Amino acid sequence: SLVKKGNEVDSINEGDEAELVTNQTPFYGESGGQIGDIGFIFNSNSNFQVVDTQKKLGDIFVHQGKLVKGKIKIKDTVILSIESERRTNIRACHSATHLMHEALRRTLGKHVIQKGSFVGPDRLRFDFSHTKPIQKEEVKKIEDYVNRMVKSNSEVRTRLMTPKEAVGSGALALFGEKYPDEVRVVSIAGVSRELCGGTHASQTSEIGLFRFVSQSGVSAGVRRVEGLTGREAFTYLKGREAALEEVSAVLKTRPDGAKYRAEQLLSDTAELESLLDQVRSEGGST
Fold it and tell me: Are 208 and 150 in contact (CB under 8 A)?
């Protein structure tokens, strides 16, 4: 199928923005919090750039984009190619989301249940049931646990089961969610087992690195945490390191002495302000 400006058409021409549906595809359509794939659909006469893939009406994958070369007609044979590096990063981020879910449950309690998520190629967002902010020491436990599991290089497996078999095997399912007769169960060896239709790493080491970056309240009883993986997590840490070095240079000390130097300056400032207040109270001039 070819859709242009909301109408089905028999062909599209160079420069047309359109939606394209094929009889099979390697592209992942946005669902379950994971964003859709991008890439190209082409043959010897045409090249369609896919900027997003959406899953509609249950199981129809719609490739959205623009024909940058040639002409495409109904029943043309085409080659579909996703942007593989981006997909690899998304897979790693999705597996990191499962690890963080387990880390939250182990640290905060079994009441933690997923309420929503976002999985991109460089960052993740996870909403869950919890009534208060996560404490500093709890954040450290969560981040340390995820990174230990990343380093363990555990295998990530996917199996097809009925919902009853999946729940019976211990897989986490979203309460109230309607599932089809066959579901995908993603298991991280010795760590977690969840119903999930997304793409995943084959080993946890593919995540590379995890960094917990923020938390916030979404609504009553629901918290949101955000994290970075892989190269983005490394870039974030390098930025923090550069900022610390700049502050240390201003304070004229080494990075590991910045805290002590800052406390010393604050103490000296407080002492001078106290002396100034005393002079003013005694009627002195400044």
Answer: yes
Cα pseudo-dihedral 278, 280, 281, 283, rounded to 10: 130
Give pTM, 2 decimals.
Answer: 0.84
Residues facing 143 on adjacent strands: none
pLDDT band at 175 (very low <50, low <70, confident <90, very high): low
Tokens found for residue 130: 């919890």
Three-state DSSP class for residue 179:
coil
Among 153, 161, 137, smallest CA distance to 212 is for 137
For 23-42, the pLDDT digits (tens) are 999 999 998 899 999 999 99
222, β-bridge pairs:
129, 219
3-state DSSP helix/strand/coil % of the chain, to nearest 5: 35, 35, 30
Residues 6+ apart with CB under 8 A from 236: 211, 213, 228
pLDDT one-digit tens code per residue, 233-275: 999 888 888 888 888 888 788 878 788 888 888 888 888 888 8
What's the rounded mean pLDDT across residues 48-76?
94
For 138-275, strand residue ranges (E) read 156-161, 183-188, 192-195, 210-219, 222-229
Write the CA distances from 65 to 33, 52, 138, integer angstroms. 21, 7, 43
225 in Cβ contact with 96 (< 8 Å): no
